[in-house]
């Protein structure tokens, strides 16, 4: 279980998050919605230790995540995708996915630098794991292609593969369908549902595409100006007057 409690983040005079709390049960998908600037990305950054809150706690599987160094988060089975894609343009698709898998590698950096026995075996293992994911996400045909120059919809799948290579239990998706066409959104939703089921993932999804969020998530949390204004099942959130007002600027 992921438990977020009383998270407050200030940037100078701006309160980006103001006492936000919610829980994510294992195996469920939670959507994080809210207008631009509501604090969604800042919250993701707290969960992955890119940002240290001024107050509040984050616990995952009983462990205090805020006590961890940022690089230790992946080792706890937490992975994320990035709004603007976290890929290396000149590396091939396979290499990009292997970068994700490397955070789970068993041999240390020193052993790798010295090319000690075991490193080559480890590389082969990570490559095999990357290839399995590429197959699963229909990316095998572009495995040796550099990321640059590939269609945006394909890069979104590579980004997902890179995050899955960490071997996560908790997967954080930051605007996964932003910039995709209508048909691509439906395909991506089917893909996320399938990998979630197959890999027994817990999901937290930030997304402006309401159809995607409402179709995928068991629960939705709505932020506005850094505060939680609503939390509940998708059908309840869609009718919530505070949510409608936050998006439209008028009461329902
Ligand atoms: N590093 C930073 N320094 C200063 N202010 C920041 C920083 N990061 C975020 N903010 C501010 O914090 C608030 C919340 O921003 P955040 O990016 O978390 O919102 P968001 O809900 O993800 O928005 P969007 O939907 O546009 O991505 C905004 O007012 C933003 O300008």
UniProtKB/TrEMBL annotation:
<dbReference type="Pfam" id="PF00005">
    <property type="entry name" value="ABC_tran"/>
</dbReference>
<keyword id="KW-0813">Transport</keyword>
<dbReference type="InterPro" id="IPR051120">
    <property type="entry name" value="ABC_AA/LPS_Transport"/>
</dbReference>
<feature type="domain" description="ABC transporter">
    <location>
        <begin position="2"/>
        <end position="250"/>
    </location>
</feature>
<keyword id="KW-0067">ATP-binding</keyword>
<keyword id="KW-0547">Nucleotide-binding</keyword>
<protein>
    <submittedName>
        <fullName>ABC transporter ATP-binding protein</fullName>
    </submittedName>
</protein>
<dbReference type="InterPro" id="IPR032823">
    <property type="entry name" value="BCA_ABC_TP_C"/>
</dbReference>
<dbReference type="Pfam" id="PF12399">
    <property type="entry name" value="BCA_ABC_TP_C"/>
</dbReference>
<dbReference type="InterPro" id="IPR003593">
    <property type="entry name" value="AAA+_ATPase"/>
</dbReference>
<dbReference type="InterPro" id="IPR003439">
    <property type="entry name" value="ABC_transporter-like_ATP-bd"/>
</dbReference>
<dbReference type="GO" id="GO:0005524">
    <property type="term" value="F:ATP binding"/>
</dbReference>
<dbReference type="InterPro" id="IPR027417">
    <property type="entry name" value="P-loop_NTPase"/>
</dbReference>
């Amino acid at each position: 279980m992921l438990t977020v409690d009383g998270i407050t983040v200030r940037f100078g005079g701006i309160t980006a998050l103001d006492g936000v709390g919610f829980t994510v049960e294992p195996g469920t998908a939670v959507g994080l919605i809210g207008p631009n600037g509501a604090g969604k990305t800042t919250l993701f950054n707290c969960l992955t230790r890119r940002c240290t809150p001024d107050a509040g706690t984050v616990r995952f599987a009983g462990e205090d995540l805020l006590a961890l160094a940022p690089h230790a988060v992946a080792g706890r089975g937490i992975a994320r995708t990035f709004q603007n894609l976290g890929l290396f343009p000149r590396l091939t698709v396979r290499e990009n996915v292997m970068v994700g898998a490397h955070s789970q590698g068993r041999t240390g950096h020193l052993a790798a630098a010295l090319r000690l026995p075991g490193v080559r075996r480890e590389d082969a293992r990570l490559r095999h794991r990357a290839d399995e994911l590429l197959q699963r996400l229909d990316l095998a045909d572009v495995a040796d292609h550099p990321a640059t120059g590939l269609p945006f919809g394909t890069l979104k799948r590579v980004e997902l593969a890179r995050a899955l290579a960490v071997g996560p239990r908790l997967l954080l998706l930051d605007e996964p369908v932003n910039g995709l066409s209508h048909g691509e959104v439906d395909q991506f939703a089917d893909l996320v549902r399938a990998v979630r089921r197959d890999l027994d993932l817990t999901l937290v999804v930030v997304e402006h595409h309401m159809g995607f969020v409402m179709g995928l998530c068991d629960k939705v949390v709505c932020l506005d100006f850094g505060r939680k204004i609503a939390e509940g099942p998708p059908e309840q959130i869609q009718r919530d007057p505070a949510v409608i007002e936050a998006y439209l600027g008028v009461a329902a």
